[in-house]
Amino acid sequence: MEDIFSPDRRYKVSFGSYEVRMSHWIDQPYLIRVSDNVSLFNLNADVWSASNVRWLDDSTVELYMRKYPGLVACTLTLNALTNHASAVNQTASFAGAFSELKIWLLSL
């Protein structure tokens, strides 16, 4: 997948894609601040894949995520400017800092 830039191009979502099984791909998203190429949020320790990404404003991105093999899914909202995140899935929700969101997601 190609990088998806915020409207003001200060942030982007990049992807690390890899094949887990024949024809089964994981597209792990990385929220990156463009000015210094710092990764603000990633889940590179697990098999979460983004299937839909859209910017809500200049610093807030919404990602629809699925955990391979697809039995768990949730929608993440990340504000790169404030380090605030929220998540909603079929049974639970979360709100807090990026680091706390990562812990919450890895526990699902």
Main features:
mainly beta; five-stranded antiparallel sheet; 108 residues; single chain
Layout of strands and helices, then pairs:
Blueprint lengths: L3 E2 L5 E11 L2 E10 L4 E5 L5 E8 L4 E8 L4 E8 L4 E6 L3 E5 H10 L1
Antiparallel strand pairs: 1-2, 2-3, 3-4, 5-6, 6-7, 7-8, 8-9
How would you characterize the overall build of this protein?
The structure is a single chain. With 108 residues, the protein is mostly beta strands. The protein has one domain (4-107). It contains one helix and nine strands, in the order βββββββββα. The chain has one helix at 98-107, and strands spanning 4-5, 11-21, 24-33, 38-42, 48-55, 60-67, 72-79, 84-89, 93-97. It is globular, with a radius of gyration of 13 Å. The two termini are 25 Å apart. The model has no long low-confidence stretch (mean pLDDT 93).
Rg from C-alpha positions? 13 Å
Overall mean pLDDT score?
A: 93
Order of helices and strands: EEEEEEEEEH
Beta-strand content estimate: over 45%
Q: Classify the secondary structure makeup into a structural class.
A: mainly beta
Unreliable parts: none
Query: Major sheet, described briefly?
Result: 5 strands, antiparallel
Number of domains: 1
Find the count of extended strands (DSSP E, 2+ residues): 9
Helical content band = under 10%
Strand order of the largest sheet: 5-6-7-8-9
Q: CA-to-CA gap between the ends?
A: 25 Å
The general outline is globular
In short:
The protein has one helix at 98-107; strands at 4-5, 11-21, 24-33, 38-42, 48-55, 60-67, 72-79, 84-89, 93-97. It has 108 residues and is mainly beta.
